[in-house]
Amino acid sequence: MHRLIRIRIIRDFEHLEEQVRRSLDTLLEAHKTSVSFRPAADFYETAQGLVLRLELSGVASEDVSLTLTGHELVVRGRRRPPPPEGIRRFVHLEMAFGIFERSFTLPIAIDPQGVEARYVDGVLEVHLPRKAPQTRKIPVKAPPAGE
Prior knowledge:
Elements: H1 2-32, E1 41-45, E2 49-55, E3 64-69, E4 72-79, E5 98-105, E6 116-120, E7 123-129
Antiparallel strand pairs: 1-2, 2-7, 3-4, 4-5, 6-7
């Protein structure tokens, strides 16, 4: 009799342990949705200037901002988690959500007025045109007479 009671207690604890484990898994998975992520980027030079491509699937265009300061381009944004409607728990979660920021140093002078950004099929493509070289005549000064 005592043995049956002991077995029931052990089973109850095993069941409780399983419930706690599932609850912790759910909490941990939900916490992952607030972790920032780092979108993949390709950055290359062409004859016309520079091109930056960022993989931003699932990010709304209104959640992306670009800032150009001197020789630095900063891309900031946010990928929002899926709405919780109907989700009981995450079975498997690899897609990262949250705020991101990527900063790129521009190796050449660019024309800030000509910068264009397009967002198509989850890829942000930024074209940074090369700044046209400016020619300037430099006068040669002679020392004043008598020096």
